[in-house]
Amino acid sequence: MSVRERRLGAFCAAPITLFLALGFLAPLLVVAAFSVMPSRVFDLAHVPDFSAFVEFVQQGYWKSLAWSIGMAAIATLILFVVCWPLAWAMVHVFGRFTQIITALVVVTLIVSENIRLFGWSLTLMKGGMIEGMWRSWTGAGFDGLLYNVPVIVFGLVYVYLPFMLFPLVQGIAMVPADAPHAAADLGATRRQVLLEIELPLASPGILVGSLLSFVLAAGAVAESKLLGGQAVIVISDDVETAFTYGQNWPLGSALAIVLIVLVGSLALFALARLDLDTVMGRAER
Amino acid sequence: MNAAPILRIENLCKRYGDFTALHGIDLEVPDGEFLTIVGPSGSGKTTLIKLLVGMEQQSEGAIWLRDERLDRLPANRRPTCMVFQSLALFPHRSVGENIEFPLKIRGEKKPVREQRARELLDLLRLPQDYYKKRIDACSGGERQRIALARALAFDPEILFFDEPLSALDYRLRKTLEKELKALHERTGKTFVYITHSLEEAMVMSDRIAILRNGRFEQIGPAREIYTRPQSRFVARFMGDVNLFELRGGVDGSTLQAQGLSAKPDALGTLDIVADRHNTLVVRPERLRFLGPESAAEFIAVGTIAASYLLGSRVQYEIDAEDGATLVVESAAEAVELSPGAPVRVGFDRSDVHVIAERAA
What we know:
Chain A is mainly alpha-helical. Chain A contains 14 helices and no strands. By secondary structure, chain B is of the alpha+beta class.
């Protein structure tokens, strides 16, 4: 790379570097600093301690974290299983209809997540569309379908579907067209083609889709609030409460830092496991 | 070579909607033969290979492997194997893992697989340390050999090739053509090779089948197809050629064709068939320049239009008197003629092959 190219690269990256430094890194550092402040202070001029982290353990906030991580993991798994066949068909089967499906999925992103979730709330609640129709047909009602863990996971799957689907489509499109045919020609069954050829060659897409879905779902709050009610409290809910009603910035910061460190290291671990160049077959050795 | 056909294609027909890609073709391939199917793009050769390997199903007809209906087996259960045009190597696997793939699928243990892969590296003249090499670190020619090694690891009854050399540069292609022919002799396997390149076909094959518009135009040894083409299409497809079409009646003494004058009786001895469209085929190397005194049974007069040096030979294009263009090839040192020079060229009946086609 020439000196000129390097300078051009730095110049082109300057706006986003500045934006990320001010908009992402700076607040993060403030949050990190507050997380080691004593309880209920509103400035950083105090002797650092780890009381907020002790509170995280003793007050049972780790349970909220476990719920967030657990539901995000299950939602990601369901998303993969649901999206893989659809993505495969979008690449290999649907042809022109792929564009229509893409447009339909993108359209869902135009409407606010909260509004879409309220729509589900109206559909699933007691006296809502499903329970109400059931009652008018059978005469016997039930409690509605809201306020449980499965419905929260359903909400996560529903909201984060595009974030799994599109990376998977990209990943599957990256599988060289002849490779699955060649594998079958060499005797591989449909299952072996999937396991030996398609999944490994599509793994960059799988990884990106899974990371996006998992990270977003782990930090999600609207699904558990709107669909789950008080069935479980997720960690983001705790963070919000600590900063607002609780007026305990150090606690909120500590909870946020735990979530960020956990999700961040998971993401780094996953990305490091996978050498993108290896998978893409581009590296020179 | 065993004469019993290992592969038999019977009335094979493939239609896509209104379009017919293959019109009920028949073909028998003896065990151990190197058969090349040649055709221009759109001739149906890709369709044919897809039917052979099971990527498509035929509309009618049958494909037999010895006594077994090959076309009824799914692709992964066919005892045949194909080297793809793209080679279709697996970029996420090492060279060794690529070659071992069919053995892994069969459930062979790692030491057995590795031993076989290493034998195949030797057979394909690839260094042993390539076993752990990445596919993307290999050159085009090496990848070609890896793809071949992988196909041979499968130990197929028949090896199909779908233009695997088309992406390589000329010199490498020439080398690999000869290697492929040598490999065929070493392994004794049946090779069915598909290409649009006649040169490739001529160098390697025992027999050549010319495919055109979904029908076989001619099937035979390369030499026979070159010297005794059955149609003008095949004659032209096999390289530069002079075609003298006989128009109107043939009374035995004159030839109404492209300014050609023939000696009395010269035509009468040729295998001309009445009621057919007769064409005299004369290869450029069979036409010769005539001095003022020399004679030939068939003579044409014209001027040199252009000359091209082909290494040891020179090809001349001659504008004949009636506006036709003739092609003559002679040894480079034999004559030297500049464009515009008037020339007489001639040939004898022994230089002629007659094509008698049914009028379309």
